[in-house]
Design goal:
27 strands, alpha/beta, 10-stranded antiparallel β-sheet, 7-stranded parallel β-sheet, 581 residues, globular, 11 helices, 32% strand, single chain
């Protein structure tokens, strides 16, 4: 069976690893997930009983310190991605036997890195499409002060136990392989995890068991040690997100959440800053012809940063028979190009350095031409007629050109801000759920330049283009001699070269709020359903995409930019009956 990817997950029978394996096996049936575990005291295949028969899952019992075996596995399964979780991880055990921790955590990680390097470097594509993701711990940073401060990606390493020292050593080896060999690596340093399948010697299950058995609770030092906790399922989701979307950068820290007053207020806040360096970029067309063509086409030169936050507020309460919950989330992220290869002769207003990534570039629209006389006294890009889009001459040289007049005309189509509101309630058999979602601080380009760099028409600029249809509102709102105050330029089925389709005329604020889903249900009392021979009977009515507030008239705000034939999300109505026997 051919798979889209072959991902090796080490320590996959352990506490965190089993959650990651389960998530990847179920979420990505097109991936082959190879679970590598030595099955020491902390590994338990019973954790993965529900996925062991899946066709995209393979278990291999082996030791990561066995370099020859690791090299064999990389070649046998054509591994193109590694999620490395296998580690000795208990502080008390590291104090008793530091050699075991140094051997597994340092030598084992080095064994995997070298096996990956010797396999990937000799492939035709080398490191392209490969990724080595190393999961570490925030204990490498040392101890938190008892003052409410937190670790950041800039915190210096200060390990204080053999365990944290061994993990710090493995982190350094991972970064060294990136800097020395160019291997695409990622390191994350998470806080303490808790949740299902945790080994009983860990703090939370240990305290719970000791409390149940009336045993003393071990507390080290003065009892002022600070611990941050992360639910293991949330950590697994974060690993999924970073493995697929993370850049080969320094470090990602994974944070915490807090619940207060018995669930009346829950707060999750992550603030981040990430800097990516040595990103691969093309040098084509960035040098004058006199330089010749004997220079690398692509180089690891660019750098950019990302900053932002994610805030989640939740409220859960029960008033007699009425239970309700509110959960709102808000995230904001902004990036900036710090360095990239650019022609030294490019004017400052055309430079990408210092601006956000993914901006739309094009000509600035300055209304519609109303007459031949106006055209004759204006700068134009190509053959132009009344009703065409008028373009602004940025540098004032009396003509419109790609080199001098194409400037940033819009924000990226990736939202800087995303938000949502989830409401739920139950009362005497009735249940209600509603999800509002939205996004802001992004633009949608209705035609012109695709993200791939291809310039093309859509039905806006060329009616019936690509055998498509032309909407009535476009025909009705187009410029005509008797309709000069028009919303759209003149229509015409010919391919135009006046540059209007690459202008800001077609860039629209994409902000929106959408009622994504709403559902009202009623569950018949059990005494009635039991009499009818059923375990549970529930009737419900639901709807999806029932209304949307957006600046994009007639269009789906979740559509890709410059689309041709995108099928919008439909408004749906559902009526259903759930019966459990």
């Amino acid at each position: 069976m051919n798979f889209a990817r072959n991902i090796l997950i080490t320590g996959g029978a352990g506490f965190i690893g089993s959650h990651v394996v389960r998530l990847f096996v179920n979420k990505y049936p097109e991936y082959h997930i190879i679970n590598l575990d030595k099955l020491t005291y902390a590994g338990n295949l019973a954790n993965l009983k529900d996925v062991e028969d899946q066709p995209n899952y393979t278990f291999v019992k082996a030791d990561i310190c066995d370099f020859d075996k690791m090299l064999e596995l990389f070649k046998q399964y054509h591994i193109d991605g590694v999620i490395h979780l296998a580690a000795e991880s208990h502080v008390d055990r590291s104090i008793r036997d530091p050699f075991a921790f140094a051997h597994t955590n340092v030598i084992g990680t080095l064994s995997l890195l070298q096996a990956a390097r010797l396999t990937w470097e000799y492939l035709p594509e080398c490191y392209e499409g490969k990724r080595f993701y190393h999961i570490s711990t925030d204990e490498v940073y040392g101890a938190l002060e008892f003052d409410g401060t937190f670790f950041t990606e800039e915190t210096k390493y200060q390990p204080h136990s053999p365990y944290s020292a061994s993990k710090a050593g493995s982190d350094h080896f991972v970064r060294a392989f990136h800097d020395t060999y160019g291997m695409p690596t990622i390191v994350t340093n998470c806080s303490n995890n808790y949740g299902p399948y945790q080994f009983p010697e860990k703090l939370i299950p240990l305290f719970i068991n000791n409390i149940r058995q009336g045993k003393p609770l071990p507390v080290y030092g003065k009892g002022e040690n600070v611990r941050n906790w992360l639910y293991v399922v949330d950590h697994a989701r974060a690993i999924d997100l970073i493995f697929h979307n993370g850049k080969t950068t320094d470090t990602y820290n994974i944070g915490i959440e807090s619940s207060m007053w018995n669930g009346l207020l829950g707060v999750e806040l992550d603030v981040f800053y990430m800097k990516t360096t040595r990103s691969l970029e093309s040098q084509s067309a960035n040098f004058p012809p006199s330089l010749g063509s004997y220079y690398p086409t692509y180089i690891n030169y660019g750098s950019h940063d990302n900053r932002g936050f994610e805030l989640v507020l939740s409220h859960n309460n029960q008033i007699r028979d009425f239970t309700y919950r509110v959960r709102g989330n808000l995230s904001w992220a902004r990036n900036k190009v710090l360095k990239m290869t650019e022609d030294a002769n490019v004017p400052d207003y055309k430079r990408a350095t210092g601006g956000p990534m993914g901006r739309y570039w094009g000509f600035v629209a300055d209304g519609l031409f109303q007459s031949e006389e106006e055209i004759a006294h204006s700068a134009v890009f190509g053959p132009t007629l009344p009703g065409d889009i008028k373009l602004k001459d940025i540098n004032g040289d009396g003509k419109i050109t790609w080199d001098q007049d194409m400037v940033p005309i819009g924000r990226s189509n990736t939202p800087e801000m995303m938000f949502g509101l989830n409401l739920g309630a139950e009362w005497k058999g009735f249940d209600f759920n509603m999800l509002l979602q939205g996004a802001a601080l992004f633009d949608v380009n209705l035609c012109g330049l695709y993200s791939s760099g291809i310039r093309d028409d859509t039905f806006y600029t060329r009616p019936f283009y690509a055998d498509g249809n032309t909407p009535y509102y476009l025909v009705e709102g187009a410029w005509r001699p008797d309709h000069t105050d028009a919303k759209y330029p003149r229509l015409g089925i010919d391919s135009r070269s006046n540059g209007g389709k690459f202008s800001s005329w077609w860039v629209v604020d994409g902000s929106y709020v959408r009622l994504k889903s709403i559902q009202l249900g009623y569950t018949i009392p059990k005494k009635w359903s039991k009499k009818a021979g059923f375990e549970r009977i529930r009737a419900y009515v639901a709807g999806g995409n029932l209304f949307t507030l957006s600046n994009l008239e007639h269009m789906d705000p979740e559509m890709p930019s410059v689309n041709q034939g995108y099928y919008p999300q439909q408004r749906t109505y559902e009526f259903g009956l759930n019966v459990t026997f």
